[in-house]
Amino acid sequence: MPTRRSILAGAAALTTVSACESGDEARPAPDARRAAALPAARSSSGRLNFVVILADDLGYGELGSYGQKLIHTPRLDDLATRSLRFTQAYAAAPVCAPSRCSLLTGLHSGHATVRNNPWGPGGQGALTDRDFTFAESLRTLGYRTGAIGKWGFGPNAPDQPSHPNSRGFEEFYGYLTHHHAHDYFPDYLWHNGTRVEIPENKDGARKVYAPDLIEERALAFLHAHRDEPFLLYLAPTVPHAPSQDPDAGAYADRPWTGPNKRHAAQVTAFDTLVGSITDRLTGLGLADRTVVLVTSDNGPHEEGGTDPALFNGNGPLRGLKRNLYEGGIRVPLLAWSPRHIRSGTTDRPTPLTDLLPTLADLAGAPAPTDVDGLSIASLLRGSPDTARHDALYFYRNHAGVTPRADAVDHGRGSRLAEALRHGDLKAIRFAPGQSRRAPDDQWDVELYDLAKDPGEQHDLAAARPAQAEALVRRMRESWAPVYRRRPFGVTLEVTGDGREFTVTATLSNGSAKPWKAPRLDLDTPTGWSIRALGPLTTTLLLAGDHLTTRWQVTRAQVATATTLVCRATAQLGDDEVTFTATAGVGG
Fold first, then answer.
1. Cβ(420)–Cβ(474) under 8 Å?
2. Backbone phi and psi for residue 522, each to the nearest 5 degrees, phi listed first
3. Beta pairing, strands 500-508 & 194-197
4. What integer is the mean pLDDT of 434-462?
5. What's CA 567's distance to the chain center, in Å?
6. What pLDDT sits at residue 285?
7. CA dist 167 to 54, 193, 300, 316, 486, Å?
8. How sure is the predictor about 24, in pLDDT bands with cuts at 50, 70 and 90?
9. DSSP state letters, 417-474
10. Rounded mean pLDDT of 458-471?
């Protein structure tokens, strides 16, 4: 009887693995936008590696270490005994797209670019050139970066600002859009800007299971970059609906419905995946200098016939995916590194927006100061003095509803809603429809004391109106129609479109630390004339300052369309950091 792994001998699986295992020479030539994001990688020199593993719709109570009794998660349960286990970690939103945007960019759902799932107002959300991800932060130090699995933003096309290659990930394999990621037996996946066909799954055939391809690719990424500092963002699609698995495994004989059996098998498959990753890190001798974070993007789902109540998927909490009650947004979070993270538990309220500043802090990389996350690096190292958030904000504007989640919301599941936690008090309010412009007296407001009532059963709003109003006031302050970012990194602008034109580059230090010896350089094609109209460097760039340089450029008599690349370098402590920006010039 062939194993699931043994059926992956098809061309699609071989293509997926070989490009990473054989090194840079086997990779497709990068497009101009992607090339601009790739400063030369430098040796590890003792740097930490990072693996961020994000499950899709894994509930707070679906792991044994968080109370699960029916689904087997032995690898994660064992890992939890050797990890720092968070009991009050929060996704930034109760549905996938806004939650993932906030995780990547460090901005909560009242500030982030993507605030809705694709089926809400505005359709498929996209990241922009204004977004800065934790991968972009680590790339400034030369980290090799990979995003494998579900991306979930922007158009289903290469070479555009929302593509992972444009947002700091030099290696991408998986699904670009949410809709595509709902297919566990797709007839193609993306490798960087190339669509990789999976002929075994053509015309509805179901022979190659995408989660297996994703696992193989992730393991190959670790092997390929074992001698370099790396960041792997691994986002498998399990256990998102539909509940599909090649077999129900250990649950085949349970007296459950088919969707429930396969959902349990998907959770166990996620457990096995995490075990495979930690085994590979250990086998490569990388475990002692790698930080692994395992979490989920929101609460448990009820789609495709799955019943989260059977598994107590939200644990002791109220709510599911789509709810702003704790069960919809509180998620498991394990942090593991044998030499660098203490084991135990922490009840610090920790939103996943903390990942960007934390990874940057641990790596020594520059990061913008205008994010909503706070670094928990000191907490991971065992310090009790880690900064705490004054408040946590959550936003929901998603028209789609499911029956159980809507019942939890008392029929208000399609309404715009927002929540804010301040200390142990948490307020939730529901608009009369899907507009934030509705007068305050038309909103339903609830207040809970999470210290005494983590299951949010006792609404205190009528008994404590002043406290409820204070938290509502904080909600209003936390949401901005457009969040204005402080300049960070390098920008490039071309003025004029003739043979002679002007290029302006600005390097902005939007971090908290000074940068020494910043320098701007412009790459142009051979035969072009370039003359600097200002200084290319200065001694020091303080936090909040910027360096601007202009060049007069004259291109060759005969020229085709090309892309100019500006590279900005600076010293941050003992390290050189590199930022890049591109601008297209017509033929």
1. yes
2. -115, 125
3. unpaired
4. 97
5. 26
6. 97
7. 18, 13, 28, 37, 18
8. very low
9. EEEEEETTEEEEEE-SSS-TTS-GGGSEEEEEETTT-TT-----TTT-HHHHHHHHHH
10. 98
